[in-house]
Design brief:
Blueprint: H1 2-14, H2 19-23, H3 35-46, E1 49-50, E2 78-80, E3 87-91, E4 97-98, E5 115-117, E6 140-142, E7 149-151, E8 164-166, E9 172-174, H4 177-186, E10 192-194, E11 214-216, E12 224-225, E13 238-240, E14 247-249, E15 264-266, E16 271-275, H5 276-283, H6 286-290, E17 298-300, E18 305-309, E19 321-323, E20 328-331, E21 345-347, E22 352-356, E23 372-374, E24 379-382, E25 396-398, E26 403-407, E27 420-422, E28 427-429, E29 444-446
Parallel strand pairs: 3-5, 5-6, 6-8, 7-9, 8-10, 10-11, 11-13, 12-14, 13-15, 14-16, 15-17, 16-18, 17-19, 18-20, 19-21, 20-22, 21-23, 22-24, 23-25, 24-26, 25-27, 26-28, 27-29
Antiparallel strand pairs: 1-4, 2-3
The structure holds 2-acetamido-2-deoxy-beta-D-glucopyranose (12 copies).
Protein name: Leucine-rich repeat-containing N-terminal plant-type domain-containing protein
Membrane topology: Single-pass type I membrane protein
Keywords: Glycoprotein, Leucine-rich repeat, Membrane, Repeat, Signal, Transmembrane, Transmembrane helix
């Protein structure tokens, strides 16, 4: 009965198909799978050897149980359209495949594919050939971390249905500047674009599409100025541009009324020089922070040329990660930092901060969920706040190279998760207790 229903709905559906597709429409017994798709998949499988290369947690050879006499719609990693039987999804991520995908590969016969995920395999010697441009139905294409190399062809811009494109972590992959521009211009439905470590090596000349929610262009050698609309794309949630030291970010030139959608901003190690008050103009006024409009949880502005004080940073209650290390920030660490009660990673190291370390860091009332606290290489004074003993989750504490004047904080031994404690180059007195490391697995202790 079930099979009959499938048959009739398939028949009904076939009226909507192209004539040549109807002709090749065949049923293989109980199989939903189309014969030509099954053949294409089996031939595709044959070009690879199985090799446990992938740096995945759960990698296994996904294609070994693909057998000609079984329904390909039940094969590992294969998804079929439930009416036409066409293969519309192929997810061989972490599939232990090793081999070269040539332009003549039968992969490109699967013309109805909507989602293709080949990430975490070893396709050394493979290029992103023009044939990828023929998979016109693709909405999701994920070829990250698979050793693709050479130039990304211009035909990628023909995939006008793409919603998600991930070519990241293929460091021998590169873009011709005009192809990169064309792609940004043409793929107007793109919501996720991840290209970190791909060699783009050009200026950003095209505005980003307002449909983008996720953009990762870290370590792509992009340079020049950011497109003027980058900070107020209405749907952007994650923006990562770090590791592009020639990418100039100059706030006054940007209209940067950042949209409320932003959750993660990573501008680490760019050519970002600004006074923090300008950034506040960008990221939202203190008023809007107080009203809780702001949901930023990750902010990384490390390794730049920022000036100003910590209280000029957008310290929102939602912040979990704050790294502004290696800039030129001055003044004290304000106790307002403790408003960010979800903070797990706080890195203010290598600036010109002075004054005491705020007591509130470990206060019961405002206790932070801190795991990493790096305040090293500043001019901080006073004592190590006793309240830190309440930070039970603390794994790393680096207060080295400051002007802290205190007794050796023996009481820190209560922190059983502490693995790295660095206190060198301060004015600490007393001796290092031999009992200290018993309960802890301290691996980097320097006094
Ligand atoms: C990837 O495959 C190539 C040959 O295609 C081989 O030389 C290389 O060692 C493989 N890499 C890893 C990490 O297995
Ligand atoms: C086919 O799949 C769609 C979703 O992709 C689902 O809504 C529908 O119920 C399915 N039809 C049958 C007959 O299984
Ligand atoms: C596909 O192309 C490669 C490289 O040009 C060639 O070595 C291989 O024989 C071709 N395979 C088929 C089935 O034509
Ligand atoms: C494969 O990639 C797609 C799109 O990029 C993603 O939605 C899917 O979760 C990935 N599969 C796995 C197993 O992670
Ligand atoms: C943009 O997409 C359209 C439709 O797919 C295509 O005809 C055109 O050639 C594309 N432009 C570029 C520069 O790739
Ligand atoms: C691509 O697949 C990998 C591994 O499954 C996943 O971590 C990544 O998020 C996917 N990329 C996108 C854009 O979905
Ligand atoms: C990156 O691409 C540029 C321009 O195409 C090229 O000159 C450079 O050698 C490439 N760098 C690497 C590391 O491949
Ligand atoms: C980018 O957008 C801005 C306005 O948001 C506009 O002035 C500018 O001309 C656009 N640039 C390009 C290259 O389209
Ligand atoms: C930045 O520019 C310098 C000088 O042109 C060049 O040597 C360097 O490789 C560039 N760095 C990046 C990340 O593009
Ligand atoms: C932020 O960018 C830096 C590049 O300087 C990189 O090392 C770091 O892993 C990035 N963080 C995230 C979460 O992408
Ligand atoms: C960094 O930005 C400044 C302007 O803020 C500019 O003068 C300088 O040339 C830029 N440096 C690089 C390496 O792009
Ligand atoms: C800046 O961007 C905001 C949000 O998109 C917009 O409302 C405003 O008109 C822009 N201002 C200028 C001067 O372009």
């Amino acid at each position: 009965m079930k099979r009959q229903i499938t048959f009739f709905s398939a028949l009904l559906f076939s009226f909507l198909l192209q004539p040549e597709e109807v002709i090749s429409f065949t049923f293989l017994g109980d199989h939903l799978c189309r014969h030509d798709d099954a053949v294409a998949l089996l031939q595709f499988k044959e070009i690879f050897s199985i090799s446990a290369y992938a740096s995945c947690d759960h990698s296994y050879p996904k294609t070994t149980h693909w057998k000609a006499d079984t329904d390909c719609c039940n094969w590992d990693g294969v998804t079929c359209h439930n009416l036409t039987g066409r293969v519309i999804g192929l997810d061989l991520s972490c599939g232990q495949l090793q081999g070269v995908i040539h332009p003549n590969s039968t992969l490109f016969h699967l013309s109805h594919l909507r989602c293709l995920n080949l990430t975490f395999n070893n396709f050394t010697g493979s290029r992103i050939s023009h044939r990828f441009g023929s998979l016109k139905s693709l909405t999701h294409l994920n070829l990250s971390c698979s050793n693709f190399e050479g130039e990304v062809v211009s035909e990628i811009s023909h995939l006008s249905n793409l919603i998600s494109l991930d070519l990241s972590d293929n460091e021998l992959l590169r873009y011709e500047p005009s192809n990169f521009d064309a792609m940004l211009q043409n793929l107007t439905h793109l919501r996720e674009l991840s290209l970190w470590l791909v060699n783009i090596s050009s200026e950003l000349r095209v505005n980003f599409s307002s449909s983008l929610t996720y953009l990762d262009l870290s370590y792509t050698k992009i340079r020049g100025n950011l497109p003027s609309n980058v900070f107020h794309l209405p749907n952007m949630r994650v923006l990562r541009l770090g590791g592009n030291e020639n990418l100039t970010i100059s706030l006054p030139k940007l209209n940067c009324s950042i949209s409320d959608s932003l959750r993660q901003l990573n501008l680490s190690r760019t050519n970002f020089s600004a006074a923090l008050p300008d950034l506040i103009g960008c990221i939202g006024s203190l008023n809007s922070l107080d009203l809780g409009f702001y949901y930023l949880s990750y902010l990384n502005l490390s390794l730049n040329f920022l000036t100003g004080t910590i209280d000029q940073l957008p310290i929102t209650p939602s912040l979990e990660y704050l790294d502004v290390s290696s800039n030129s920030l001055q003044g004290p660490i304000p106790s307002s930092i403790c408003k960010a009660s979800l903070l797990k990673i706080l890195d203010l190291s290598t600036n010109n901060l002075s004054g005491p370390i705020p007591q509130c860091l470990g206060n019961f009332s405002q206790q932070l969920s801190l795991r990493f606290l790096k305040l090293n290489d500043n001019q901080l004074q006073g004592s190590v706040p006793r309240s830190l003993a309440h930070c039970e989750d603390l794994e790393l504490l680096d207060l080295g190279n400051n002007e802290i004047d205190d007794k050796f904080p023996v009481w820190l031994e209560i922190l059983s998760n502490l693995e790295v404690l660095i206190l060198r180059s301060n004015y600490l007195s007393g001796t290092f207790p031999t009992t200290f490391s018993k309960g802890n697995s301290l691996c980097g202790f320097l006094s």
